[in-house]
Amino acid sequence: MVQVRIDPWREEDLDLLRRLNTPQTRKHTGGPESDEQMLARHERYVHFADDGQGCMYVMVLPDGARVGSVAYWARQWREQQVYEMGWAVLPAYRGRGLASAAVRAVVDVARTRRDRRYAHAYPSVDNPASNAVCRKVGFTLLGETDFEYPPGRLMRANDWQLDLTAPPTGS
Q1: Which of 9, 73, 91, 112 has the fewest other C-beta atoms within 10 Å?
Q2: Cis omega (within 30 of 0) on the bond before 167?
Q3: Kind of pairing, strands 118-121 and 80-89?
Q4: Residues 2, 96: contact at Cβ < 8 Å?
C-alpha cells in the first residue's frame, strides 16, 4: 500500500512550489511561471483554506519528504457547483501511486463537506499520467472539453467526474 499523507500548504512550502515550477512538471499547465507569478500562487496556497472553499495540500512521505501538491476548490461548472481537483508530483517520485493515494485522501475530505455532489478534474488530453490517476481513483470520463487554463488560454482537456455521494471506489 502506498503511504502518503496530505498536510495543508504552509509558508515553508515555497521551496516545493519552486521545484514544481519546471518545464517538465508544468508541461500540461501552461509552462513555468515567472517568479512573481509563483510567489503570488504561493500566497494563494498558504491562505487557500481561509475562505472555506477548498484547500491546498502537500503530499508528504513517511520520511517527511514533501513531494507534490494536491487540492480541491469550489467552482461552477456547467451551471453546477462542483469541486475541482488538481495535483502535481516531483519527477523523482512519479510512477509510485502517490498522486492516486493523495487524490483519494482529498476526495475523502471533500466528501465529508457534504456540500457538493460532484468533483471534477480536467487533465490535458495529452497527459496520460493524470488521466490514469482519474481512472484509478474512480472518476468517470465525461469526454473532451475546451478548458481555460492558465487564465486566458484554452487547452483541450478531459472532463472527469466523481460522485462524492457514492461509496469510494478505485484501488
Answers
A1: 112
A2: no
A3: parallel
A4: yes
